[in-house]
């Protein structure tokens, strides 16, 4: 019997009533896959009652399969003349499985088998029973390496979508939390889930997200970034308009503000929309420490981002075009340090930036402590050797080092910072400080013109009163943050001023 590829089984039903023919049909679909197991079972009380369990080895929990399916099936006394609805009888009386769904859809059956479910076929039935026996190995719940906090929850998402959803449900225990499943990838059939709080989420944003997701047509989705790149606004601009996090508490907080989250099976990274530019400067633990310290830290991160993209450009502008703006002693010191350096200031700056980015990338790719050692020792050795060899001057080493330290405070903007840095250097090499200021103006115009699912990514665009600024550049007290962001939620009131509970 020749059977087409399993991807073509849309709307095809279980074709036969004979057990052997159905099993052969399934085996032909999975021809060449030796992990597919067909386990035949016969009732000891009625020889006419024959069954076959089809599952994927390694994807099922063997104890569940034995205790909840096979054992009850062997112990159940079927009617001597057979059952009117054998599959229905098994589902209601002869299995302990927490999920048993009757289906005749071949695509649903094949997808269930490869996803860890067990398909039960009965002789004389032109349908199958899908039993939940999932039991593949998963990574334990640990704190995300890239989002460590000194204070706050220590749990992070894993690669199992059901486990991730359970962590979110544990934090938001309300029936108002909605979860809608979708499948992407013509071949991977990756499950995703859209989560939102119905009474808070903006209907316009939700509908826009669903419209964009309907247009996704790709062979496979192996990580949430596959979908993020497809649905984001301005796909060719290096600014994130779709948020991402591995922490359940962050996702819960964003949902409570009216945002929408998207989980992807196989990825610990959860997407959130809409995403504002200011969110890059908001730390995970800003809301777990005193608001004074949180506000100071946030302002420092904003300043660090500005310095990380501006320091090399400002240095080049002053040294190459506007020496009169430098103190005489500093200008003499810089000039003396550049004696014998064969390259112009612009070239040595670009050279050191490329070396720094290479060291950082190498350190990130090396395992653990070795990577940190490589970054530190490499920077010290190469920097000192370059100065002694008169390849670069000492001031440029200081500028690049300060830039690197500031850049470490805003890791989420690493890619955008690199592009802005080189753009401002190029502008400064042409027009000095005037070119730098024009470059800053271009970046600001770009930021203020961008949107995330119809919402401007810059906070000043939608801020209307003082309440809208209470969680932007600073973090105000919880008692004072009475309203949610007005552009996100249908219900703007976060808490009651009279001490009453707010639903």
Beta-strand proportion: 5-15%
Counted by DSSP, the helix tally is 15
* Residues in helix, %: 40-55%
Largest sheet: 5 strands, antiparallel
Strand order of the largest sheet: 1-2-4-5-3
**What is the H/E order?**
HEEHHEHEEHEEHHEHEEHHHHHHHEE
Number of strands: 12
Class from secondary-structure proportions? alpha+beta
Overall form: elongated
**What is the CA–CA distance across the termini?**
61 Å
The residue ranges in which pLDDT falls below 50 over 5 or more consecutive positions are 1-10, 499-503
- What's the structural domain tally? 3
Write down the Rg. Answer: 30 Å
Provide the residue-averaged pLDDT.
84
List keywords for this structure.
503 residues, alpha+beta, 5-stranded antiparallel sheet, 12 strands, elongated, disordered N terminus, disordered C terminus
Describe this structure in words.
The protein has 503 residues and is of the alpha+beta class. The protein has 3 domains: 126 residues, no CATH class; 131 residues, no CATH class; 162 residues, no CATH class. Helices cover 43% and strands 13% of the residues. The protein has 15 helices and 12 strands. It has a 5-stranded antiparallel β-sheet, with helices on both faces. Helix 9 runs parallel beside helix 14, helix 11 runs antiparallel to helix 12 and helix 14 packs antiparallel against helix 15. The N terminus and C terminus are likely disordered.
């Amino acid at each position: 019997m020749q059977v087409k590829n399993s991807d073509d089984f849309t709307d095809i039903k279980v074709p036969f009533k004979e057990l052997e023919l159905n099993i052969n049909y399934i085996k032909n679909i999975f021809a060449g896959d030796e992990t597919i197991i067909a386990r035949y079972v016969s009732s000891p009380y009625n020889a006419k009652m024959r069954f076959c369990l089809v599952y994927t080895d390694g994807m099922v929990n063997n104890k569940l399969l034995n205790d909840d399916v096979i054992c009850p099936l062997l112990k159940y006394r079927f009617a001597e003349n057979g059952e009117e609805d054998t599959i229905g009888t098994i589902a209601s009386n002869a299995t302990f499985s927490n999920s048993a769904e009757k289906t005749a859809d071949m695509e649903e059956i094949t997808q269930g088998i490869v996803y860890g479910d067990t398909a039960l076929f009965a002789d004389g039935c032109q349908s199958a029973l899908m039993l939940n026996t999932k039991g593949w190995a998963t990574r334990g719940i640990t704190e995300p390496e890239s989002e460590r906090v000194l204070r706050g929850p220590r749990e992070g998402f894993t690669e199992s979508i059901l486990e991730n959803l359970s962590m979110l449900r544990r934090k938001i225990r309300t029936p108002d939390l909605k979860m809608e499943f979708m499948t992407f990838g013509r071949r991977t059939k990756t499950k995703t889930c859209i989560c939102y709080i119905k009474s808070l989420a903006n209907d316009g944003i939700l509908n826009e997200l669903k419209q964009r997701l309907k247009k996704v047509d790709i062979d496979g989705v192996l990580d949430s970034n596959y979908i993020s790149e497809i649905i984001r606004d301005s796909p060719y601009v290096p600014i994130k308009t779709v948020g991402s996090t591995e922490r359940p508490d962050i996702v819960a907080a964003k949902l409570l503000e009216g945002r929408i989250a998207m989980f992807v099976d196989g990825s610990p990274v959860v997407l959130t929309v809409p995403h504002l530019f200011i969110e890059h400067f908001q730390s995970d633990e800003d809301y777990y420490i005193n608001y004074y310290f949180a506000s100071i830290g946030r302002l420092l991160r904003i300043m660090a981002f500005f310095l990380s993209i501006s320091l090399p450009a400002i240095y080049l502008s002053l040294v190459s075009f506007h020496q009169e703006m430098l103190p005489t002693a500093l200008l003499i010191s810089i000039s003396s340090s550049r004696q014998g350096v064969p390259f112009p200031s612009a070239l040595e700056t670009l050279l050191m930036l490329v070396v720094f980015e290479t060291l950082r990338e190498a350190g990130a790719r090396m395992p653990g402590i070795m990577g940190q050692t490589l970054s530190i020792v490499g920077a010290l050795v190469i920097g000192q050797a370059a100065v002694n060899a008169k390849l670069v001057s000492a001031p440029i080493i200081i500028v690049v080092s300060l830039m690197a330290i500031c850049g470490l405070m805003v890791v989420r903007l690493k890619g955008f910072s690199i592009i802005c840095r080189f753009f401002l250097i190029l502008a400064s090499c042409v027009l000095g400080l005037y070119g730098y200021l024009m470059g800053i103006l271009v970046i600001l115009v770009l930021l203020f013109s961008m949107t995330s699912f119809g919402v401007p990514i810059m906070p000043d665009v939608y801020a209307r009163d003082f309440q809208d600024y209470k969680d932007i550049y600073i973090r105000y007290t919880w008692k004072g943050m009475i309203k949610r962001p007005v552009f996100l939620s249908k219900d703007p009131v976060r808490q009651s001023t009279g001490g009453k509970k707010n639903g």
